[in-house]
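Hi everyone, sorry if this is the wrong subforum. Our group has a chain we'd like a structural model of before ordering constructs, and none of us has done structure prediction before. Sequence below.
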Amino acid sequence: MATPGTLGMVERAAALTRAGFTAKQALHVINAVSTFVIGHTLAEDHRERFDLAVEALLSGLAPRTPAAGTTARTRTGRRSSGRRPRPPAG
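Answer:
Right subforum, don't worry. Here is the predicted structure as tokens:
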């Protein structure tokens, strides 16, 4: 059964796909932001810390679908090959 909350999530996912995210990426973004906000709400963190952290989270979110062999710029202006960095060895 569709609820207003479900419809809202579908609308947010559609907006993200129009911005260049794949459907899977859009759902991951929605999940990450929702979890982040809920976590801060439960921890009752200070507003200034929340604002700083949410800005950092959102600035790192960008579609990652450059053509093969090319680089793309993320929302923060950094170059991205579309791949996540490898964790350090060890």
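For your construct planning: The first strand starts at residue 72 and ends at 73. DSSP finds three helices and two strands in the chain.
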